[in-house]
Amino acid sequence: GRLNPKQRTNYNSKKTMATLSGEKRKRDTMASSNLQSLRYSNEGGKTPTLSVLDQLLIPDKKEYVDIPDVEAAWGVIRSMQIRGAPLIAIVACLGLSVDLATNPKTKSELDKLSPDDADAILSYISKKTDYLRTSRPTAVNLFNALDELTEKMTEAASASANGDSKREKIVKCVVQYAEFMLERDVSDNEAIGAHGADAILSRVGDKGLKMVTICNTGSLATAGFGTALGVVRELQRRNKLESITALETRPYNQGSRLTAFEIVEEKMPGGQLICDSMAASLMKTKGVDACVVGADRVCANGDTANKIGTYNLSIVSAAHDVPFYVASPFTTLDTKLQSGDDIEIEERPAKELLDTARAPQNIPCWNPSFDVTPAKYITGIITEKGVIEKSEDGTFDIISFVKKHS
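and the corresponding structure tokens:
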């Protein structure tokens, strides 16, 4: 997702804010929620600090992990101490900015390069971004965010001199643009919530809705508000939410550990937890108005990669005529991949399944982290730029939507 002119203007204005009011800049990144997925500050505009909520400890503990460098950012992403496609991208970019601006080892290595040798400096930083790309392969947001940040660094390096060295320009650009991405993520999520609530209410009726979701797509998966759970949060704000059911989301239990935690913390009406295998029975006996899920990658034909179990839920929804919506940022749309067959699916260690299954430790396991929901089971794809709906022939035209809004 390249920036449109309006977004570029917002970025430019935020650069001034970051410079002038740095001494009091400590973001509440969860302004729309009681939960903070990360804590970021930049006292004086030149010393960014970052810590992230260790989500492996939720709901038992709330502990934050300091992120002083890209290795730490890589580690919390890889270990799933933080997760959620939008949050992974934000933590990678903020982690890079902290590394370049404050990490003594990095600063010492940069000192060995000429401060005006832009090519050498960009080459050095590219090794760090390449490393961050290896943390988790399925979520496209990470790759798009790093591509976007790289483009801005290149522009900064080629900008006319104003007294700063090339190194100073590039590092300043990374810090300021990562901060812009942080703020943009929250506003984008709020727009996703509004578009999603409008679309679902328009389809199923202006009433209190019984909603279902899987995995965690709320404040803990983003910089704030959430994507799919942000839609639910917006329905709650409008007094149009009768109930929200979270699927447990085996084997890592993001639904029971994280989404259920958010539901309780936010006092969402009718909140309840069910096992993944109970969704069909819930729809048949209790009734469900709509499902809304997140996404880690949406292909050109609308096929969508999301947490394992999403595909099952889409089939169950289709069998019960329940609308099935995907809610994710515009940056999740990957038109370079024609279909879900092209998506690399991350496989997690067997231990993660064995430890939560009380199974014999010597039983072989297959533990994919994601599955791909075919476009035919998806009702609409909700982004901050609007809702992508199917054409008359029953297919999604993701490419045209991306071209229109890029």
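(Above: one complete record from the training split.) Residues 144 and 173 are 17 Å apart (CA to CA).
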